[in-house]
Amino acid sequence: MKKCKITVLKTTLDKELAEEYGVPGLGACPMMKEGQVFYADYAKPHGFCDEAWKAVYQYVFALSHGMGEELFYYGDWIGKPGVAICSCNDGLRPVIMKIEATDEESRINYTPVR
């Protein structure tokens, strides 16, 4: 199992939807910043948004297990092997992230309870 690099590419705000449904003064996500980098494998990285993790963990899991050696979705989505572009579930202010496989091996840093 390899680690994946998660890079925050863009924080956005859908102004039209935010004006209709959001609270006054709503802005882009306050938790994630453009350019932030996280490394993940089997667990959510420290400081990573819980909701964003729910949206991207399946891509991290797939890439960390070698699924990114081929193009995702039969080559009709992302043109680079080992890369996924995803966003969090926030419909008013989604954060867009790049997830890419690395060559770094994962290490479990806890003792599983049995």
Task: Please outline what is shown here.
This protein is α+β, with helices and mostly antiparallel strands and 114 residues long. It has helices at 15-21, 50-64; strands spanning 2-11, 37-40, 83-87, 95-105.
Description:
- The chain has a four-stranded antiparallel beta sheet with strand order 2-1-4-3, with helices on one face.
- The chain has helices at residues 15-21, 50-64, and strands at 2-11, 37-40, 83-87, 95-105.
- The chain is globular, with a radius of gyration of 16 Å.
- The model has no long low-confidence stretch (mean pLDDT 88).
- The chain is an alpha+beta fold and 114 residues long.
- Strand 3 and strand 4 form a beta hairpin.
- The longest helix is centred in the middle third of the chain and has 15 residues, at 50-64.
- It contains two helices and four strands.
- The two termini are 22 Å apart.
